[in-house]
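Example 4.3 (complexes with small molecules)
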Amino acid sequence: MAVESWTVPTPVKDLAALVDEPPSRFVQREEHRPGSLMLAADMPDPLPIVDLNKLSTADEAAKLRSALQTWGLFLATNHGIDASLMEDLMEASREFFHQPLQERQKYSNLREGTRFQLEGYGSDPVVAQDHILDWNDRLQLKVEPEDERSLAQWPKYPESFRDLLHEYASKTKSMRDRILRAMAKILELDEEEFIKQLGASPQAYARFNYYPPCPRPELVLGIKAHSDGPVLTVLLVDREVGGLQVQRENTWFNVPFVPHTLVINLGDSLEIMSNGIFKSPVHRVVTNAEKERISLAMLYAVERDNVLQPAAGLLDEKRPARYRRITEADFLEGVKEHFSKGIRMIETLKI
Ligand SMILES: O=C(O)CCC(=O)C(=O)O
Ligand SMILES: [Fe+2]
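Answer. The structure with fe (ii) ion bound is encoded below.
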């Protein structure tokens, strides 16, 4: 459903070129500010690096289980995606974001000037006058089901963009399935349990995030604290510029970036499906004054008509459901509505 926007936002990239100070609409309330960037702690124990080729071994499965129960995210290596494909796709998206405004606006996420839709290029809709905006622009494209792609929204420039995204998306989709099978196995469920819960035509979006440098990074957030609503996010982060942080026990930790590894981030839907055994992490992105940063999040969700609920095999008298059932369509609406207010939709479903 389209949301009416209060104002037509200028992409942050173009705004950043004009100002010495972030406009007040971007300035976070004191308690949400990144603080001194140095204060965010490095991880107490290294974030687990899981070798996807070894998921059938007990050691690797134990590492994955511990990562999912504590951080809710891990780094994946041996994921089967060529380093050159990852680099070429990041470079192509950088070229897209570097085009003049007029070219980028051809893919705008606003219809008739003000009606916001999920797909396309731009910033978040300004849904309330007191809504604090994120210091980023994004290009969001539906990639699954494949026959629902609106190719008109896929950039024509650079020419390689569409083929690269197509190839990358087919690889990350099979990664999704490998990881979901390993997760079901860890919980002693049928290996296909979570894949079945995705339904016959599950949805996926590619979200390219562009964070321009910010003259006062201590005042703004690239993306405010949130957890991802869908089942699983496969995140390709900038290989040179950090910024992603994950929260644990009220402390923010810098997520390390290791070239050519992918960050796998569990989403709220899977927290529900695992009845809370696996955690969907709260994370955010901080900016810096010197360098732009790019990331690509592949967000994997269930089919729109499906119901999100804990797997039956995890429930019994001693372990009742910890989340209310909800249709995916209602859940997504709720996530959108709650995000701008900084509230996690999943909190509203807890029993
Ligand atoms: O840019 C990043 O590293 C994270 C992006 C993110 O959290 C998101 O797109 O949901
Ligand atoms: Fe996220």
